[in-house]
Amino acid sequence: MQTLTVPMSDGFGVSVQVAGPADAPTLLLLAGQANNHHWWDLVRGGFEARWRTVTLDQRGTGDSRGPVGEWSTRLFADDAAAVVEHLGGGPVAVYGTSMGGRVAQVLAAEHPELVARLVLACTSPGGPHAQERDAGVRRDLAHPDPAHRRATLRELFYTDAWPHRPEDSVLFGDRAMSAEETRAHLRASARHDAWDLLPRISAPTLVLHGTDDRMVATANAPLLAERIPGAVLHLHEGGRHGFFEEFATEITPLVSDFLE
User: Which pairs from 59-62 meet CB under 8 Å and 24+ separation?
Assistant: First the structure.
């Protein structure tokens, strides 16, 4: 894997990771809230025979550290666009999950020349039209006991058949983030509202979601699919928020077929 730092227009350095054949088409993978590129560790290998995979550490995660500002999914989308341009330009395939899916929505709407095909998984449009998680989930995620929060995340992300411990997951956040950085990511995701942008997405789009997702309610998937022109919807039976990883042997080929 090649690692490089790409400077943004404001001087912030974003860490980027590139793997797979150098002459292959590019697949940009966008991770969830308060997570770095390791979010994709158990998934990206399934794409690398066919794609040059590109990940990035969003501001405040991984090796992308610097001043904390009023970050937004629009800013993160502009960062992703700058990364694509730095690596040779588009259009590229984009696969965004959770908050990465929110960033991908803005990227596809505001930088259509850079996005050839788009996959949005376990994400939502945000704003007043979205269906938010229920009060019980919010309460458990804010519990003062870290062990309780980890157990809650394990239940929200994986089915009972997932054979690992909660601390083995790469989806539960970048533990090196400061409280200030974590709050900035939370605000960016919470303030996302792409409802008016979605009809502007021109790239062929696949919307994926697990039917048992309580972290980001499954009801958000048909909202996205109906709002994005020509979008295709696929619901994975029994999948929770981490379904794209837990069921990667089924989901990755589905995504690959769509992108090709």
Answer: 59/12, 59/14, 59/184, 60/34, 60/177, 60/178, 60/181, 60/182, 60/184, 60/185, 61/31, 61/34, 61/35, 61/36, 61/174, 61/177, 61/181, 61/185, 62/15, 62/36, 62/37, 62/38, 62/174
- Give Cα 79 to chain centroid, integer Å: 14
Range(s) of the domain holding residue 227: 2-133+175-259
Q: Is 44 left (phi over 0), alpha (psi -120 to 50) or beta?
A: alpha
Residue 159 inside a domain? The answer is no
On whether residue 229 sits in a domain, the answer given is yes
What are the backbone dihedrals phi and psi of residue 251, each rounded to the nearest 5 degrees, phi first? Answer: -75, -40
Q: 120 vs 4, 96, 243, CA distance in Å?
A: 26, 5, 13
Element (H, E) at 250: helix 248-259
Give the predicted TM-score (pTM) of the model.
0.97
Write out the chain's pLDDT in tens, 260 residues.
999 999 999 999 999 999 999 999 999 999 999 999 999 999 999 999 999 999 999 999 999 999 999 999 999 999 999 999 999 999 999 999 999 999 999 999 999 999 999 999 999 999 999 999 999 999 999 999 999 999 999 999 999 999 999 999 999 999 999 999 999 999 999 999 999 999 999 999 999 999 999 999 999 999 999 999 999 999 999 999 999 999 999 999 999 999 98
Say which CATH number the domain at 186 has.
3.40.50.1820
